Each structure stands twice: as C-alpha cells, then as structure tokens.
Amino acid sequence: MRFSPDRIEVRLGETIRFVHRNVDNVLHEMVIGTKWALHEHAELMTKFPGMEHDAPWMTHVAPGGMSEINWTFNRPGRFEFACLIPGHYQAGMIGTIIVSQA
Ligand SMILES: [Cu+2]
Q1: What is the CATH number of the domain that holds 16?
Q2: Ligand 1 mean position to 26 CA, how many Å?
Q3: Which domain holds residue 14?
C-alpha cells in the first residue's frame, strides 16, 4: 500500500508522464488532486464501494499490470496523489506533488 516514489517535485507548466507498475496482487489506482478533493472522494468510495470512477486525472492499475497518466501541472502549490480504493487511502497510500513556479 505504498507509492514509490511518494514525493514528486515539478515546475509549473510541466507535463509529466506517470508510468505505473503494480507489483501487488490487487487492483490499485492513482488519482491526482488536492488533499481536500482526494479526502472527499475517498470517503465517498468507502460509502459506495462498488462505485466506478474514471477521469483524466486518474488511472487504474491491474494486479501485475501497467498504466499511465499524462498530466500538465497548471497550478502551483501542494497537491497529492492517492489510491482511493476503500482501505488503501486509509492505509496511507498517498503521495505528495509539489508544483513550484517556473
Ligand atoms: Cu490501492
């Protein structure tokens, strides 16, 4: 239940290609957002475990599989990425993204 790395620093305007490799035997996901938005969404997923979600700022990674997100950081500040599958977020499957001014 860990991201590696779990802290990423980027510059404003940079586009990052996140390539994920899931070396675990359960499904994981990576969702990029503000701390608040991720927290809210994690609560929602705990209430509705069967809910499916998909958006450009998230990707699912099958057990033993790979996946990727391309994301352009157009706001400076501190953001997070997390796996919002019930139990995973709560177990600390969270990372930090620092977007600094170019
Ligand atoms: Cu997970």
Answers
A1: 2.60.40.420
A2: 8
A3: 7-100
